[in-house]
Amino acid sequence: MRVLSGGQASQTRGLVLGAGVATTLTVWTSLADPVQLPKLFLGGILASWILGILVVGLVSGRDTKFSTGQWALFAFVGGLVVSGLFTDVKYRAFFGTWQRHTGAIFYMIAAVMCLAAMMSFTSHGVLQLRMALIFLGVVMSFHGLLENAGHDPFPFNTLYSPLVGTLGNPDFYSGFLGVCAVATFWYAIVTSSNLVRGLSVLIIGLELFLIMKSVSVQGLVAFAIGFTLISITRLWQWKRNFGISAVIVTCIIGPIAILGILNQGPLASFLAASSLKNRFDYWRAAFEMFKAHPITGVGIDRFDEYYGQYAAHIQVVQGQMTDNAHNVFLHLLATGGLVLFIPYVALLVVIGFTGFRAILKSKGLDQMTLVGIFSLWFGLLAVSLVSIDNLGSTIWFWIVGGALYAISHAPIVATVPHGKSITKVKNPTRKITQKQNLNLLTPALSLILSLSFLLFAFPEVRSASALYKLTANAENLNGAEYAAKLKEAVLIQPSNIDVLGRVASLAGGVSNYDLAIELSKALNEKNAMSYYGNMVAAISYERKKEFTQAIPYRIRLTEIDKWSTSNMVELVKDYVAISDLVNARLIATKISTLYPNSEDATTALGLVNG
């Protein structure tokens, strides 16, 4: 396996852990997207710097072969590139959905972190990783206490539980805090200090309390997995019979807990999540997208534009839209197709198999180290089955996965004692010169890559800043000034379809319908599937009483979201307004056929029948 030399490895480990901590904690409240975008921006800069180190390390280490896990990671990156090339809206392929930002850049950052971990981590480095997660758990818990008391230092505007940490969502917060609690429990199990054990119990108790306050079970699931795996291993090492008993108890309680999460059995009232029912709709739609676009998917992070076409006729929450499958596997399958899904699964299988094999072959403290990091990785993997990738916590899934693979693969990699050499160096002067050249090349390449990413991504940040200012300062501008600022925001990054859509909506919100229509048309040219573009244009024309102009956009919306009867009712109104009762009756009949006796069906028939 290609690995970095001792000095490079130590430096890279520090950078990876620092980048992970910084990315998780970073927020920027003066942006329209205060959570995910700043994480993407900072994470991209740091990952670019690390990539420079990796490139030099790979070039200088050509005498060793890539491992299976590294090839699987390269295959994933290749699949990402292919799917991105086939995505119709390239901006979305790169940057991802608004306030998610799970596009190609997101996964490139994750892949760089994973490769860096594969090439740099040792058993000692894994202990540093554990401390990083314990530290994050403490910081996030302190922040959670402030949020719970109503004193959040970050003025988030959230529709969810107030406990969102620096991740912007209670599910993300809960799941990640559960993983941090696993890291703390792992430390408590292996330490010989009673003081550390006592502090660890207090930290875990606080983390579990905040997980419960977040009203999300994801953290409980992650912690239960880690707690179980670590406890079984410790009991097995102590007395085999105790370990066997623990496995039996787990096999009994585990299925009951899973049924409880699915709202079945005695634990349903405690574990069931109401949002899980909605996820079944999302998962079915994702699979339908895959069946229609099996090779390259509907496009990287294009789930939102296609959901309305592939959603079930009868949904748990009728008419609810979503921009993600809420299952990482299904989301990648739907949006990236098999060319992305297969290498992703292959990578996880290789990491999981290599880690599990190493656990079986190891003993004592080494085995506990492997089980500890495997528990962290598997807990994050389990959360991904019902959640969304977000850089603040997902970056740790890739770092931990790379580190797990590195230390599991380590026995296969020959290590040379310091000061020794496998082969005799024929020309030591040349060797020293090469090393000096590499020492100069590494920071130069890292700087070039980091600056390149900064220049590429900074317009995204400027656009989000301009949009935030437009929203916050609207009352301080007159109509002409506000319109000028709206146009300026669009010009910062013309390819940014998300800002364009929101600026169009803001223009319509202040009754500047001509500008709203102009911006909507520009958006529809860049993204023909845009729900925002067609909706804002339709509403703007209707407010201007130009119903004939509004009708094509309403018809387009029936294709984008084929079950939306509220849109169909508006289309009926438009047809009635221009006295086209034939088409009005056709749409009203369609509503009645789709949802007989519904409120929208009654309204539509009332409009037609006068």
TrEMBL record:
Membrane topology annotation: Multi-pass membrane protein
InterPro entries found in the cross-reference section: O-antigen_ligase-rel_domated, TPR-like_helical_dom_sf, WaaL-like
Main location as per UniProt: membrane
Keyword NADP belongs to the record: no
Domain O-antigen ligase-related: 208-344
Places the protein is found: Membrane
Organism expressing this protein natively: freshwater metagenome
Transmembrane domains' residue ranges: 12-31, 37-59, 71-89, 104-122, 129-146, 172-190, 195-212, 218-236, 243-262, 328-356, 368-388, 394-417, 438-458
Protein's name in the database: Unannotated protein
Pfam families reported for this sequence: Wzy_C (PF04932)
Keyword Transmembrane (UniProt): yes
GO cellular component: membrane
Keyword annotations from UniProtKB, A to Z: Membrane, Transmembrane, Transmembrane helix
